[in-house]
Amino acid sequence: MPKEIFHSKEYREIMRKCLGDTMSLLFDKNQQFSILCTVENIEFNPILPSDIYDQFGSEVIFSLAGYTYDSASVNEKYLSFEAGFGSEGFGSTLKIPILNIKHLLIENIPLIINHSPLIAEDDDSKEQQENNSMQALMNNPENKKLASFRKARKK
C-alpha cells in the first residue's frame, strides 16, 4: 500500500511542492541547509571529470553554504547551484530535479524525508541526461576509443 501512495502522481506533486516551498522559505530566511539526493539524475554543467564523479556513491549529500548557498535557486521543478569539487575545486553548476532530493536537513536534523521516486514524466531533461552520461563516459581517457567506434557505427 505505501508504494502505491508514494508512487502516485498526487503524492509526488505534494512532495515536489513541499520540498520547493520549504527550500524557498529557507532561502527567504537566509537559512543554510543540506540535501541528500540520488546522483543518477543530477545534471552537471560542465560534466565532472570521471576521477571526481566516480568517487560518488549512488547518493550524495550537498551542503548549501557559503558561495554554493549564494548561487542557489529553486523553481517548481529544480534546485540549481554552483559547487566546487575535488582538490582543485573543479567548478560545476548542478541542476537537481526536486523529487531527486530524498532528505532536506538543517544542521543534520532531517526536516523532510521524501519517499516518492523520480519518474520520467517528472523530469523533462531525460535526453540531456543521456547526453551528459555519454559526455562523462568520453571524459575518461580509457574510453576515447568508444567515440571512434560510435562514429563508425553511425555511418
Supply database-style keywords:
155 residues, alpha+beta, SH3 type barrels, 28% strand
Structure description:
The radius of gyration is 17 Å and the shape is globular. The chain starts with a helix and ends with a helix. The chain has one domain: Roll (SH3 type barrels), CATH 2.30.30. Strand 7 (101-106) and strand 8 (109-113) form a beta hairpin. The chain has 155 residues and is of the alpha+beta class. It has a 4-stranded antiparallel β-sheet. A 4-stranded antiparallel β-sheet has the order 2-6-5-4. Helices cover 39% and strands 28% of the residues.
CATH C-level class is: Mainly Beta
Number of strands: 8
Strand content: 25-35%
CATH topology: SH3 type barrels
Topology as a string of helices (H) and strands (E): HHEEHEHEEEEEHH
Helix content: 25-40%
Write the CATH homologous superfamily: SspB-like
Low-confidence runs (pLDDT<50, min 5 residues)? 148-155
Which structural class do you get from the secondary structure elements? alpha+beta
State the CATH architecture.
Answer: Roll
Our count of domains comes out at: 1
Order of the strands making up the biggest sheet: 3-1-7-8
Q: State the oligomer.
A: single chain
